[in-house]
Amino acid sequence: MLDVDGTLVDYENHLPDSAVTAIRKARGNGHRVFICTGRSKAEVYPPLWEIGLDGMIGGNGSYVECDGQVVLHRTLSLEQCRCVVDWLHERRLEFYLEGNDGLFASEGFEHGALKAVRAYNAAKRHEEEGAAITVRSVFPDMIFGAELYRSDVNKISYVLNAYEDSLVAKAHFTDLQHGTWGGKGATALFGDIGVNGITKRYAIDRLLEYLGAERTHTIAFGDATIDISMLEYCAVGVAMGNASDDVKNMADLITDEVGNDGLAHAFRRLSLI
């Protein structure tokens, strides 16, 4: 189970050749390889599929696909989406809806999310915020001006004006799943709202049930706090060298950074290739 951002690709979306080679060799040796990501299917671009994958878990667990077959897909209802969109508008929080058919931005997202997007990318690359980064460069296929009341939404991400926004959201929408990303604790940049009970761990469990496979044969790779549930669930949890400290502290193995062939090095150490 491979997280994507910060694990399979770096935060400039560069895919190391060593990772591609390692995955292909591992599959050639009879291992199944799935990506397990916060991205929805619309954000899994052709270069990732062209590596050769057995399927994907997307939307932090809301969507599971294996060998081209949909195993699980849980979306917010139209009414749930409408209520969240209206609430975010009322609080003047910019957001985007994440679905398998696309990412749908709120009216002011391009400008209102710019500071958070730049800070997020800078933190992941350990650099200063770059003026060249735009919302459209980070989200090249984002759809602007679309209908925002939808029934095909896996989850909704929104810009935090303050960490308190995420706490208020959680208290207001008690029937939905809540998280933050782009930083730990009060430094988080974004909140997200999705289907209650959906996690990467939950989705892996459903996938194993579909495959008739055992947890004892699973390995998970990740770099962020959201990945901890799957690293704990799988038999072996691997933290990338660029992972946050909380991930490294609970991992069974720490490899090199994604840009330093970390995935390939871990595959070798685990005798996958």
Strands in their spatial order, largest beta sheet: 7-6-5-8-10-9
Q: Strand count, sense and closure of the main sheet?
A: 6 strands, mixed
Q: Could you estimate the helical fraction of the residues in percent?
A: 25-40%
How would you spell out the order of helices and strands?
HEHEEEHEEHHHEEHEEHEHEHEH
> Unreliable stretches, pLDDT < 50, 5 or more residues?
none
The DSSP helix count reads 11
The percentage of residues in β strands lies in 15-25%
Give a count of the beta strands, DSSP E runs of length 2 or more.
Answer: 13
Shape: globular
The SS-based structural class is alpha/beta
Summarize the structure.
The chain is of the alpha/beta class and 273 residues long. Helices cover 33% and strands 21% of the residues. The strands form 3 sheets. It has a 6-stranded mixed β-sheet with strand order 7-6-5-8-10-9. A 4-stranded mixed β-sheet has the order 1-2-3-4, with helices on one face.
Task: List the keywords.
273 residues; alpha/beta; six-stranded mixed beta sheet; four-stranded mixed beta sheet
Secondary structure blueprint with pairings:
Layout: H1 17-28, E1 34-36, H2 46-49, E2 55-58, E3 63-66, E4 69-73, H3 78-90, E5 95-99, E6 102-105, H4 109-112, H5 114-125, H6 135-138, E7 143-144, E8 153-159, H7 164-172, E9 176-181, E10 190-195, H8 200-211, E11 219-222, H9 228-233, E12 236-239, H10 245-250, E13 253-254, H11 262-269
Parallel strand pairs: 1-2, 6-7, 11-12, 12-13
Antiparallel strand pairs: 2-3, 3-4, 5-6, 5-8, 8-10, 9-10
